[in-house]
Amino acid sequence: MYNNSFSYIEDFNKAQELANNILNQKISDSFDGLIKQINIHLPKIEKIFSHSYYWCIDQCEFATNINFKNRDDLSLFYKTLVETTYFTFSSEDIYSFFGRNVSRIHNFSKGEIVSDLRNRYQGYRIKFKINNNQIKMYDKGNKLRIEVTINNPKDF
Q1: pTM of the complete model
Q2: Distance (Å, whole) CA 137 – CA 81
Q3: DSSP letter for each residue of 113-131
Q4: For a designed S-S bond to 125, which of 32, 33, 47, 138 qualifies (C-beta 3.0 to 4.6 A apart)?
């Protein structure tokens, strides 16, 4: 592991299989097991409402890594990709990334749309943000990484 990502994966097929299975897990079952240890009234709640708790995630982050054989292969086009993305996407595009109705963009008054391009010591990073929700892309070693961070799901 290196800074919240894998620095080396020997068997990509096995890693992808594990990742796919994570998406098929019903996480609420794990939470239900924990709450049964905490809430002694759960059996009564389940009897009255015909189900247990309703679980939701208030904040989350999803990341996609596209791995290259080496950093040089990624470097061949990465800077151009970032610059093109920064200068091509409009506020309307960013607005739609976040599930907004583009025809109502002028009515959007809660927060501003931010496009940010930075040359950090690791490389270039581009970020699009509305309020506390953001999409960013950067190079991380031999990976092209795209992260979606949701800190305010009510915006959706």
Answers
A1: 0.71
A2: 10
A3: EEEEEEE-SS-EEEEEEET
A4: 138
